[in-house]
Write a structure and sequence with these properties.
The protein has 5 helices and no strands. The protein is mainly alpha-helical. It starts with a helix and ends in a 29-residue tail after the last helix.
Length: 112
């Protein structure tokens, strides 16, 4: 492993620790948006999985292929997320506008 790789790995670990420490403040700031996200996605495991892939690097077709989610459902979900201002772009390569922890859909809204 070269010096740049080691440095990048260290910076990523620091970033992850800062996110973990900041999560309660982020949850409070984004409480209403997170509630809307939970309402839109509901208890759909494939819906939750698709949200985690909405990082701006994948098209809806890519997300559909990776999650096996119904394309019509995904399209409707993206449209609803966009309408709720939960996407940071136009939806072609969806990017969630808020940060959520990896266990977001496992915990109840009151736990935040």
């Amino acid at each position: 492993m070269d010096d740049n790789s080691e440095l990048l790995k260290a910076v990523q670990e620091i970033r992850d620790l800062v996110r973990l420490m900041a999560e309660p403040a982020i949850a409070e700031r984004d409480k209403k948006l997170r509630e809307q996200l939970r309402r839109i996605i509901g208890k759909s495991a494939s819906g939750a999985q698709s949200v985690f892939l909405m990082d701006g690097s994948r098209t809806q077709a890519d997300i559909q292929r990776e999650t096996k989610i119904n394309q019509g459902y995904l399209s409707s979900t993206v449209k609803e997320l966009k309408g709720a201002k939960l996407l940071a772009d136009d939806g072609k390569k969806p990017k969630l506008a808020i940060q959520i922890p990896s266990n977001f859909f496992e915990s109840e809204a009151e736990d935040e």
